[in-house]
Design brief:
With 132 residues, the chain is of the alpha+beta class. It has one domain (3-123). 48% of the residues lie in helices and 19% in strands. Strand 2 and strand 3 form a beta hairpin. The chain is elongated, with a radius of gyration of 22 Å. The protein starts with a helix and ends with a helix.
Length: 132
């Protein structure tokens, strides 16, 4: 694989991990979003990645899968959105799972960024050798 190929593959990884970070951030930001019992809960977003076809390698976002729209019903009779029985709907998002995914996505992004940096340094060193 060439230096440019390494940058290209790592660049595809950066894109996928950035989208994963965006999805996890969105999930965490909306984990306490309250809806009335007759509405759908906020649906968590999960990024699905796949290998890119061809000789170049890399990865791409295949799509985004939405979580459960049923969420979880919580008894909060004082809430303005509570139904006649006193229930509201929250998303079914687990903070510890989301934080674990956040850490994995951050580390993956950092690793791919490091590959880009190393490939750039290698390319610059090759140019210096060529200049003699």
């Amino acid at each position: 694989m060439t230096t440019f190929g390494a940058i290209g593959v790592a660049g595809t990884g950066l894109t996928v991990y950035r989208k994963w970070l965006d999805a996890v951030s969105d999930n965490l930001a909306n984990m306490n979003t309250v809806r009335s019992s007759d509405e759908a809960a906020f649906q968590a977003r999960y990024v699905v990645a796949q290998e890119m076809a061809g000789d170049q390698g890399g990865v791409q976002v295949r799509g985004v899968v939405l979580g459960n729209a049923e969420g979880r019903m919580v008894y909060e009779p004082q809430h303005p959105l509570a139904d006649a029985e006193g229930y509201v709907r929250y998303p079914d998002i687990d903070m510890s799972s989301q934080m674990s995914q956040l850490i994995m996505a951050q580390r993956g992004y950092q690793a791919n960024a490091a590959v880009v940096d190393r490939a750039k340094e290698t390319y610059q060193a090759a140019l210096q050798i060529g200049r003699g």
